[in-house]
Amino acid sequence: MGFFVETLIGGLMAGMLYSLVALGFVLIFKASGVFNFAQGAMVLFAALAMARFAVWIPGWLGIDNALLGNILAFLAAGGLMFAVAWLIERLVLRHLVNQEGATLLMATLGIAYILEGLGTSIFGSDIYKIDIGMPKDPVMILEGTFEGGLLINKEDFVAALIAAVLVGLLTLFFQKTSTGRALRAVADDHQAAQSIGIPLNRIWVIVWCVAGVVALVAGVIWGSKLGVQFSLATVALRALPVVILGGLTSVPGAILGGLIIGVGEKLSEVYLGPHIGGGIEIWFSYQLALVFLLFRPQGLFGEKIIDRV
Amino acid sequence: MPELASTQALDTFPRLLFHHAQVRASKTAMREKDLGIWQCWTWLEVAAEVRALACGLAEMGFTRGENLAIVGDNRPRMYMMMAAVQCLGGVPVPLYQDAVANELLFVLLDGEIRFVFVEDQEQVDKVLEIQAQLPHLEHLFYDDARGMRHYTQAFIHDVRELMAMGKIHHRNHPDLLAEAIASGHADDVSVMLYTSGTTGKPKGVRLTHRAFIAAAQGGVDFDDLTDSEDILSYLPMAWVGDHLFSYAQAMVAGFTINCPESAETVMNDLREIGPTYYFAPPRVFENLLTQVMIRMEDASRVKQKMFHYFMAVARRCGAEILDQRPVGLADRLRYALGRMLVYGPLKNVLGMSRIRVAYTAGAAIGPDLFRFYRSIGINLKQLYGQTETCAYVCLQPDGQIKFDSVGRPAPGVEVRIAENGEILVKGAMLLKEYYRRPDATAEAINADGYFMTGDAGLFDDDGHLKIIDRAKDVGKLANGAMYAPNYIENKLKFFQHIKEAVVFGDRRTMVCAFVNIDIGAVGNWAERRGIAYSGYTDLAAKPEVYGLIEECIEQVNRELVGEGVLGDSQIHRFLILHKELDPDDDELTRTRKVRRNFVAEKYAVLIEALYAGRQSQFIETAVKFEDGRQGKVAADLVIRDVRTFPLARKAA
Amino acid sequence: MSREIGEVILDLKNVSLAFGGVKALTDISFDVREHEIRAIIGPNGAGKSSMLNVINGVYRPQQGEIVLRGRRFARMNPYKAAQAGISRTFQNIALFKGMSVIDNIMTGRNLKIRTNLLLQALWWGPARREELAHRAKVEEVIDFLEIQHIRKTPVGRLPYGLQKRVDLGRALAMEPSILLLDEPMAGMNVEEKQDMCRFILDVNDQFGTTIVLIEHDMGVVMDISDRVVVLDYGKKIGDGDPDAVRSNPEVVSAYLGAGH
User: Fold this and answer.
1) What CA–CA distance (Å, rounded) separates B578 from B582?
2) Rounded to whole angstroms, how far apart are CA atoms B489 and B502?
3) pTM for this one?
4) Which residue, A115, A120, B226, B231, could crosslink A41 as a Cys pair with Cβ 3.0–4.6 Å?
5) Can you name the residues that pair with B631 across neighbouring β-strands?
6) Which residues 6+ apart lie within 8 Å of A77 measured at CB?
7) φ and ψ at B308, to 5 degrees?
8) Residue C21: exposed, middle, or buried by beta-carbon count in 10 A (0-12, 13-18, 19+)?
9) Cβ A195–C83 below 8 Å, yes or no?
10) Which value does ipTM take for this structure?
11) Chains in contact with A, where contact requires at least 3 CB pairs less than 8 Å apart
12) Rounded to whole angstroms, how far apart are CA atoms A237 and A22?
């Protein structure tokens, strides 16, 4: 029993990170109808920037304090993501207004390659570490409830906490502020939003900025766990089943979908793996997504939109 | 000079008001939701506004004893105007806000009214429509300035102007108001309420301060009401019930009245305020229950199951628990769980979580309906009274609730049953007179000083009064058996699918009925069965709907057979009317009572068809739309026979 | 005090619009004066909606220009139009269906919001005060349109007539100087039409808003408009006060010809 719960919690924590990446997809899709294939590249790009800035900035400024260095690096990387968002809107999206979904999808594929290329040429192609002082050692909890207690990875726990806080803040931002309301309005009906004086261009920049921040947080967490390397970009592919499961237009769907996939992967690996063979973790989520596509193509909470992708 | 000297008895409403302004000055007296926010007035603020209004009226030449008409929804300033008029020894005359211009005309002429206070443009327009026929009208005040910019007539004023004028007047004559209040007397008329009158022209019922304060004080003592009650004031101000609960009792106990934002938002406002004390006619309780039921039918299966299970528990023991009678431990536990899962949330949705006492009156309430509210823990009780008795004759005491009685005579009220079964009452709360109708006054109050209610009733063994029917409506069938039409109609109306019913049978061989279906409940029923319909007339004619109503009537027949003397009154034939009975077509009174004779005359051809044994009948009826246009509704109405049951006593 | 019709505020000069080879509008000129109610009527397919879309910049005419308060716009776009104080409603109601009535109307305040994103994100001081001030303004609109009872209801769940009212509410929340109404009474029953007429007249009267409305039903519009433009097959066939338009033989035949 204790082992099962451990696996479950491990899955939930991994799932939280999937949710974060999926959230990036959903935000952009809702606001602009674009399925952003570059989300993975953005995660990589942001993580690379963070990793390098965390080394470069203390070097340039002669700062010893690791925490301060990390904060400055985070802000710099955030600023860079804003700039990227602004450039994407300026150079790409603005010229593709009212084009076919497929055209926009191709455009984001292009953006993905550019970001990956740009990332490696600016920041180099080595494997970097992000050390934001995450506690690495596991802890035992609930020793009274379960025999032998539960072994929890502190790092996972902190990461999940950060992801949860971010999701909470985003929800508040969307529900409570006038910009959030404008974002929801644009997501609901472009044309109407425009005619009441909501500037689409600015909204798109904001959405891409938010997606950029989400990518940065995801990148930092994944990076500090696994190291920053090219394979981070494929994290996005792991999040694909999540959005299929949760629905492309639903924020709660993205979160729940992430958790389901996370838990599903871990449980299937542990309990089905020995019978079917290892490595289920890799393809389990795609199977699940496939089943969903067959029976509920709009996802758990989504609208009937998926055919646009 | 303060308006209230400490030596004065608190025996008029103005004195009560200024008393509250002294002893609970900063307590909230009134609330109104406006622009999405609950605006509050303390007793001190209310007193200040009343002072301004009263002094303004004095400045405009309002004199002691004269009438002032008030027309509009429940608004704080409308209530304040009542108090202001009373300060000057005048008589406020609240009128139904949905009265059409002609109905206003009658009252404004009858009361020789010079001053009219209305809520808004809509009401101003109504008065202007009949202005030419109103020789007495001198001043028309309005509360809501919206849309009033282009009304340039000199006699129309914003009530704020009146108050501004009043403030200046008060500065110049600081003693006038205090003197006016001091010279008021408990036996002065405090309010005139027009009875809707099921027959003939309305009569102005003149009630004194003494009468209404006695009725209010009796009710406050009876239910231990305090100054911390909250009540939602949403019933027509012209109705005696609202005047008793929202004005007289609030003035006596010093509690808070809350005015809803608009008629459509009442449900929401109810939820936000969560009144502790509540008053509504049965149809409001019925509408609420219907809404709950409709929503339950759309809920998930699990929820439905849970709901029905715990409602069964509540039916079994809820009322007993409320009355603090012994109930088994198992049921008590189930009920406690139900309170957490179902009754609590349900009460919350209904806006009834905080209710200590709720009353219903004005018409008979269905036993199932009544039981429903009591079983989920709402202390709903019935009261009995008329406009002529300040709505105060009988009250149901806590813990002694019978579904078919209206309780015991209230404190200070004497009740007798006359030979012919008519209920006679006497007490401080009786009317002073009908306005300018000594003949009617003499007719209504007998030589011993009893008011003749016109209702037929009897006392049961526990001394609880049971109302059977209107005394004059109680008739005889051709075979001489007693026939109480309202009693039967009420039985029919207790079904959620039947909105109105009119039965016929006096001096006839059998009882037949007209039925109005409830478009909400039956519409929902039809939708769930995939029955398409285009509107009321279409739905009413569906054979499936006829079947549904037939079942209800059969059920009534089954009940009537068990009630001995009324067994001959089983309904033999019925039809569903092609239009809803409507006050705009004079078929119902403003309080939604059926005008039996009018309906019988208007639909004579249908009655004839019922008794001639025909299977259908064509009819065309003129209708008035809300905007005043005329139209016609025509239909070929089906007539159905219903199963009747052999009388048990004959077999015995 | 009575509203006084002022100077020309909006002037359309020789506007022509075509989609591909199909001419939607041909050489149309008319003006709108401040504070007036100006109707554009015509049978279905006459080009009324195109006309409105040109004014608010959804369509760009191939020829002609729009002069707004003396400023020439060869190219208008919806955002510029909104900034210039033009708001509109839609024939097919383009409300944000998933959002509540109050949120929908609040979006109408978007242009007026001054505090920046950062302050809003922190829900802090000035941003919060501003939000409350806008909310108060929106409550006035809600009160004006008598829709208090549906404040929190998601728009998608409302009946058609009420959605139209919310649509008007959102446009009003912008406090426009010119209000474009695209068939405000289409699909309504008699009572709803009367309500809508009352609201349109009240808006015009109380706020002095200039109103341009299009309708294909002549009846109601003639009663509330100061001047009427009649279009048929993308051409202007009549322009003047309602009585003049009603007696214009070309207008009569256009309507008869279209089966009205």
Assistant:
1) 12
2) 6
3) 0.74
4) A115
5) B623
6) A46, A49, A50, A53, A216
7) -70, -35
8) exposed
9) no
10) 0.75
11) C
12) 10
Let me know how long chain B is.
652
Helices (H), B244-322: 249-253, 266-273, 282-298, 301-322
Helix axes B519-528, B282-298, angle to 10 degrees: 10
Beta-bridged to residue B633, according to DSSP, are B621
- Whether A201 contacts A89, CB under 8 Å: yes
Tokens of C188: 């309504």
Q: What is the pLDDT of residues B325-368, one digit of tens each?
A: 888 889 999 999 999 999 999 999 899 999 999 999 877 787 88
Are the Cβ atoms of C194 and B149 closer than 8 angstroms? no
Distances (CA, A) of B460 to B67, B405, B464, B465, B467: 43, 9, 5, 6, 11
Length of chain A in terms of residues written = 309
Residue A20 CB partners (closer than 8 Å, separation 6+): A163, A166, A167, A214, A217, A218, A221, A258
> Shortest Cα distance from A186 to chain C (angstroms)?
8
β pairing state of B115-118 and C71-73: unpaired
Query: Tell me, what DSSP letter sits at residue B462?
Result: T
Chain A residues with CB-CB distance to C under 8 A? 172-173, 176-182, 184-185, 188-189, 191-200, 206
Residue of C nearest to A201 (CA): C79
A34, A118, B148, B201 from A232: Cα distances, Å: 22, 15, 68, 87
All structural domains of chain C? 1-85+176-260 (3.40.50.300), 95-175 (no CATH)
C-alpha closest to that of A222 among A214, A211, A124? A214
DSSP B13: H
Place of tokens 């409001």: B284
Q: Which residue has the tokens 């179902």?
A: B342
End-to-end CA distance of chain A: 42
Residue C152, CB-side half-sphere exposure with 13 Å CA sphere = 4
Of B201, B185, B202, give the one whose Cα is nearest residue B193.
B202
Quickly list DSSP for C182-203: ESTTTT--HHHHHHHHHHHHHH
**CB-based contact C95 A182, cutoff 8 Å:** no
Q: Where are the alpha helices (DSSP H) in chain A?
A: 2-32, 39-61, 66-91, 101-123, 154-176, 178-188, 190-195, 200-226, 235-246, 251-267, 273-276, 280-295
Q: What token pair was written down for B650?
A: 């004959």
Model pLDDT for residues C189-198, shown as the tens digit of each residue: 888 888 899 8
Q: What is the C-alpha to C-alpha distance for residues B62 and B91, in angstroms, rounded to an integer? A: 11
Q: Are B519 and B496 in contact (CB under 8 A)?
A: no
Q: Where are the alpha helices (DSSP H) in chain C?
A: 48-55, 78-83, 101-107, 117-122, 125-145, 160-173, 190-207, 218-224, 242-246, 249-257
Pick out chain B residues at pLDDT < 70: 1, 6, 197-199, 562-565, 625-628, 648-652
Q: How far apart are alpha carbons A108 and B479 in whole angstroms?
A: 91
Q: Measured in whole angstroms, how far is the alpha carbon of residue A17 from the centre of its chain?
A: 7
For the stretch B282-323, pLDDT in tens is 888 988 888 888 888 887 888 889 999 999 999 888 888 888
Residue whose C-alpha is closest to residue C186's, from C101, C89, C252: C89
Cα–Cα distance measured from residue B54 to residue B140, given in angstroms and rounded to the nearest whole number? 15
Which positions ≥6 away from B495 have C-beta within 8 Å? B552, B555
Which residue in the set A178, A191, A198 is minimally distant from C131, CB to CB?
A: A178
Q: How far apart are CA C96 and CA B141, in angstroms?
A: 41
Interface of C with A in 110-149 (CB under 8 A): 110-111, 113, 117, 120-121, 123, 127, 130-131, 134
- Element at B503 (helix H, strand E): strand B498-504
Any idea what the Cα angle at residue B37 is, between residues B31 and B39, rounded to 5°? Answer: 30
